[in-house]
Automatic annotation (TrEMBL):
Its main location: mitochondrion. It is found in: Mitochondrion inner membrane. This is COX assembly mitochondrial protein. Keywords: Chaperone, Disulfide bond, Membrane, Mitochondrion, Mitochondrion inner membrane. InterPro entries: Cyt_c_biogenesis_Cmc1-like. Belongs to the CMC family.
Length: 107
């Protein structure tokens, strides 16, 4: 027996009205990823600075001595570098790209 109702998969990169796929170039995707990392570093700057200070003070024993600060830094960075956050940046980039293409088409 098959499904009686077909489930529709949602693709965030397809414009539902025109059914056109709006994709990013590899360079645009990499720019989104760099932007994601930069935003995470800014939001977690205090935790990063704490770890950097600890690692400068304890060169040889940094792995053992700064374990807690490294974990706190990584937890903070993981919070802001999720796939969901990256997808939000990509969708925003696609919207800007679509607006530019639409504006060019009108002129």
């Amino acid at each position: 027996m098959g499904k009686t109702q077909q489930s529709e998969l949602s693709n965030p990169f397809v414009n539902r009205e025109t059914q056109q796929l709006h994709a990013l170039t590899r360079a645009e995707e990499e720019a989104c990823f760099k932007d994601l990392k930069q935003r995470a570093l800014v939001k977690c700057s205090e935790a990063v600075q704490d770890f950097v200070k600890c690692s400068q003070d304890h060169n040889v024993t940094v792995v053992i001595t700064c374990r807690g600060k490294a974990r706190a830094m990584n937890d903070c960075l993981k919070q802001y570098t999720t796939q969901e956050e990256l997808d939000k940046l990509k969708l925003a980039k696609i919207e800007r790209k679509t607006e530019i293409l639409t504006a060019r088409a009108r002129t």
